[in-house]
Amino acid sequence: MQPSQNRSSRTFMDYNSINHALDGICGLYERKIRDINPMIPNITYDITDLYNFIDGLADISALVYDHEIHAFLPYDRQWIKQKLFQHLKKLAQR
Fold this sequence. Notes:
Blueprint: H1 18-36, H2 47-56, E1 62-66, E2 71-75, H3 77-93
Antiparallel strand pairs: 1-2
């Protein structure tokens, strides 16, 4: 991900699964909310807030390893948002 237009803000994160990566993105957003509102004990947000956070990043993408072809496949911001929606929907149904 790259939070700003400055290329030096680019950060790479490594996760063991897509679900862990999606949880990581949610965690990044939650840390940002806590930094902005340190006095709020319980953070709440909806999918639109999370989408706005993702859209506000200069760049975000995912490289996902495909075991069949033994290579990493790139996925864009829209794919990440779709996967986040599916992931959070599953968590909400538990």
